[in-house]
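SEVERITY: medium
COMPONENT: batch folding queue
REPORTER: lab tech (J.R.)

DESCRIPTION
The queue accepted two submissions in a row. Attaching both inputs and their returned structure tokens so the on-call engineer can compare them side by side.

ATTACHMENT 1
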Amino acid sequence: MRKILMFTLLILAAMVTACGGGEEKDSNTLKVMLGSNAVSLDAAQATDSVSFELMADCIDGLTQMDSNGKAIPAIAESYDISEDGKTYTFHLRDAKWANGDEVTAEDFVFAWRRHCLESTKYAYIMGATVACVKNADAVTKKEAAPETLGISAPDSKTLVVELDAPVSFFPSLMCFPAFYPINEKFYNSLEKGTYGTSPETFLSNGAFTLTEYLPGTSNIRLQKNNSYWNAQNISLENLQYQVVSSSDNALTAFKNGTLNLVAINGNQVENVKNDADLSKNLKIIPTGLLQYLSFNQDAKNHHGGALANVNLRLAISNAIDRESLVNNYVTNGAQATYTAIPINFAPNAETGRFFAEDQKQFSDVVSFDVEKARRFFDAAKAELGKDIFDLDIIYANDSGDTVIKVAQAIKSQVEENLPGVILNLQPMPKAEYLDRVTTNSYDIAITNWAPDYDDPMTFLTLWTTEGSEISEHWSNLDYDRIITECTTGDLAANYNERWSAMYDAEEILLRNAVIAPLYTNASAVLISENVKGVDFHSVAIERVFKNVK
């Protein structure tokens, strides 16, 4: 019996030791909630913040963001700028891909050329409205050979980028995944169309490598990349993501320790604030994400093109109580917004004032005013010769429960305040939603945009005639002219005149009710007390985990 007892005690001791070891290992795994699935890990195809975050976990570009959002060296150890501001020479550090290959200047040349040729939704970012990379638009339109793109590699550690015009925020743009490198030899070894669809078809040069991923999966795992050039400063061993679309489920997962970082909204935020223990873990994080309604003005759409009428669009916009939306349905610190640029974003370099600091500057066309909304609606009915407008409103129902509540509230408000407008709610998976908004199969879409860089132009370029992936089928020559002058024209190098001209463009946009801004989002997050160093940003990459301990 004594031997059996001793053997049992030894087994128990071994189990305790093993469990203790497991807990110690698990303590260096950060478990993070995702609000929706990643669309793609191919920078030429991705359009969503989840995909961009995952790519940034695993790949370093020329620059990266520090904890304050400032662009600092990454693969580029340093860079020089020509006197006219139109040529950047990047000097690359010694860095390796996870398979042991050197990261070279040619990797950037290959990736940028490929992006121009293959990107269907973010191709514009290389061109005249954003980065102004020489010949980017011509290469994208297949009017010039990819070799003419303004990027070259004199040697493996030197990258030269030529621009058509100076771009003051160019270094910060290099933090964005569209400008990341791709190992050409690795890419060419894959079956066509499979890049980024599994750990085996995705190659890292960044802080983490992908160990578990399938498109559309709800669980994604990453582990520390010991080949990373800055691996000695990466504390985390593992990153584990889980898609949770319900705030209730997110809170439950945090309480039981399944997740270390979650986002909550709705009543859960108030419940947490009133909980003495949980409230210690709550942080309200401002973001630069603008939630808005996109109106499809195509006269050929399936409801007869009624939304091509500006008065109908203005009527709907002014019938929405944005304060009620953020106070009763979003409830995570979001702010009602009446501009096309989000609040607390893009400070003026000279005055320090945020671009959208004055939220009443366009109040005659963007407000909550039922009487005004009905005047616009009466004008629309007279111009269109009808009294009933049956419209569909689409949204992604797997991007969290907030958008579902917001959609229902908008339907209720608009139908009550504009008798004769019927909004048919059409929830759908994110992938279907993106297909609908990019193929002109919608009337109204609840959508959003997060800034790729810290300048109002990251929003204003969306509504040029060339536009982005969501096309409102609106075109205005004056608007296009202002955007061109601010990007590649005479105003590009004149800070104050450019700033003023961007307000002129915004006014054209809102007086034409191309969109109906709703709110600038925030994020109410719960973070475990033993987790330190999560960096939150309002531009480009919303969360960065390189500094987490």
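ATTACHMENT 2
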Amino acid sequence: MTIRILIILAFWGAYYLKANTIDLPNYVVATERSYYDYSRDIPIRSWALNIEDGSLPSTLDQIVSENLAFSFFRRQNAEFANPTTQAANLRFLSATAASRALITKDGIPQNDPFGGWINWARYNDLALSRLHLQNSATGASWGNQSAGGVIHLHSTDIPSTAEGRLRIRGDSEGGYGASIVQNIPYQEGGLQIALKAYDTDGAYVVHPDDRGPIDQETAIDYASIGLKNEILINESLRFSTYLDYFEESRNNGTPLANNSTEALDIGLRLHSEDTTLSWTAILYYQQRTFENQFTSVNTTRTGENPVLNQYDIPGEGIGGSLVFNHENGSKWNYTFGTDFRSLSGETNEDFSFGLDDRRQAGGDQWLAGVFGSTAWQITDNQSVTFQTRLDYWSIRNGNRTETALTTNTITRNETYTDRDGIEPTVSAKYLWDVDPQNQIRLSVGHTFRLPNINELYRPFRVRIDITEANPELEPEKYTFIELGWNGSPNDSIQIDSSVYHYWISDAVANVFQFSGPGPSPGGFVPNGGSFNRKENIDESTVLGWQTLLEWKLSDAVALNFQYLYTQSKFEESTIQPQLDGKRFPQVPEHKLSAALRWQLDNLQINAEGIHVRSQFDDPLNNRILDDYIRLDFDLSYTLNERMSASAGVNNATDEIILTGRASNGIRSIAQPRTYWVSLSTRW
């Protein structure tokens, strides 16, 4: 189904459903929500989405990135970033592009079963009510992939009357698209249909001074369909089913460099709400297909040749959970449960100059855990929360086969030994309400992350730099401590500040092996290029300080200031001693932002600026990425009760923001100045 056909169907379907639905009372009543909802845990911990606000970004990652601790591996957003770099990282715990945070939607994990990344463009914000961020201490019961925390997406309730929402958006990069949601209540239940589509010419990803005739804009188009059905079995028992489909195609900046994604998700959720003991049972299935072609561009950037064609990368995940929660307003509440996740995937690819060799590599993973948490109100102003979890993991059926296509000869045939282990996760959090205006918190914990199938078996290439997978990677292990304070010096100022320290054992990094030219297990390394391999680093640390100041100047004007300091470095590496003392790649020491919100009757004006200091593109800290300042402006006007319009500009000064620097000096850049407009309506 093409993007344009999907948009036409969305408009037609909305009109048809509006004319053929019956309003039925007493099902689920939607609540009013504001755009922001600050909690007293960590800065900007949760967002309540106003689905009539046309100034919301087109992809959810741009909302979460308002928390400076959230980032992709590179300085890019989901509209322009390669899918494999769209991992969710919190507090810069990552030395690679793999996700160190877990994403869930209504309790169902969303991370890709093969690579752990997130297709952020697929989510329709009109069908979501809330984004909620848990830090490490409160997200420990989720276990694997939650080292930095957990980001929860909550879908909207289906209201008691039939209603629909539509948003149309266009931008100066040739982008246009629409999001639409139709809610259809029926007796004892309701159906929600959500569609989203976008098509853009994209932007150049190579620095203007480094471009050649071969470079072009990164055209992107994507579409998603989401179905949610809820049945109220009785007053306390609700059964929900989910079906989501997403397809995307991208150009990576040259004619032959392309990738595409297909994703299918099916979920079942049974929830029982009782006065004291509630429970939720979930089953889900994920299917992914990914294709990606890497090319070698000549030194004059006048031509290219395919050198790695990953023509079929399937991934599959099956999982489920059963969670019980006891809460009756007493001094002692608790949660306990179990979950499992079975993952499989492989890469099928042709490689070498001329694509004369074929590789198949992949395997399976299994994770199962039991967990429990308890909250104890010690006194009226002091409480403590304990979380513990025990996971069994296994890596199975790992294999790698390579064949010379010209002679049909097997040149490599490896089967890797199955292995397994048990990993504990534990955390404790203490809260002290010193007075109504001040709260102190202290958290400690330990958790882990299992290397994903992508890291174990799939090599990749960034321009002339090749990185080999490693089937022998061990789990990363994290031990952390955090001290925080939340206070209100007066009624108009809110401050939240926290200091945290992580000790990481066996952190996965892309470790330099040698410079080209020359052959390597991942293909021929060209002159000026490098060959790297994923390896475990013995010891690493991350020290951070994050502060938020929210200042309400009046009922109409509010200011927001944030600062994040991060010192992340490799402490000890027996494999590559040159890493000792080096900073993590793609991690700046300083990030600072300031935002203004000004409400004038029906007009809202927003302005935001962010300053990010320089960072390195490689673990050996040889390739520096300059610091930058980005300014964004937008305004929204409510035309009437059912319609609003918005317009804005991102990167208003057209700052050149470096996202990467290859070994031969070719620089990649982020989104240029982009103007956009949107129109939102409901019925």
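NOTES FROM REPORTER
The chain has one domain: 3-682.
No errors were logged for either attachment.
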